[in-house]
Amino acid sequence: MDVTRGFTGRRRAAPDPRLPPGQYDAGADWPVLTAEVTPDLPTSTWTLGVSGLVATPTTWTWNEAHALPSSTYEGDIHCVTTWSKLGMAFTGVSVDTLLEAAGGPLLTATHVLATSHTGYTTNLPLADVTGGRAWVAWEVDGAPLPVAHGGPARLLVPHLYFWKSAKWVADLRLLDHDEPGFWEQNGYHDRGDPWTEQRYQGD
Ligand SMILES: Nc1nc2c(c(=O)[nH]1)N[C@H]1C(S)=C(S)[C@@H](COP(=O)(O)O)O[C@H]1N2
Ligand SMILES: [Mo]
């Protein structure tokens, strides 16, 4: 400890503007938060579906999903338990591309319920998964997504708290109403905007 400099010698660094209120930079750590048993999902039998209120409900195999145009998100993620990770790179297929390949949402579609191969669910307004803001991601920082982090593929909605990013995502179902998912039924906020700290119901 540098005692001789005393209390005038140090300044607290300005907070990183990429950190939403109440969040800290986890640095090299990437905590694993999983409510269920981690599944084993071989890519040979993995599927991804877009169902409900789309013109052509569609299911893709691993190879079919990879034949769609891919894209990369470079940026930050924010968990409601207050850690954030800055400057990540996730690659996969955008939800826009999936919806387009499924013929597009019907006019009545307003919300999406994401369901994982494990049964985990989370709900989102359709507007939060369109416009280049959501992906089904299978790579992180240039490597296959580790199974603990949702591999072989997870939903990624990085502008909302990370519980919306369903690991091991299996299906995106378009609905004409909102349907609370797992954490939303257990007191978490319906939308989860980190910049306005929508952590819990009533925030
Ligand atoms: N299937 C599934 N997806 C999930 C969760 C989960 O428990 N199961 N936890 C959510 C929460 S609360 C967070 S913060 C992130 C954690 O992702 P990570 O374990 O890759 O950090 O996944 C989200 N997606
Ligand atoms: Mo979380």
From TrEMBL:
SUPFAM superfamilies: Oxidoreductase molybdopterin-binding domain. Residues 1-26 are annotated as: Disordered. Residues 39-183 form the Oxidoreductase molybdopterin-binding domain. This is Sulfite oxidase-like oxidoreductase. It comes from Iamia majanohamensis.
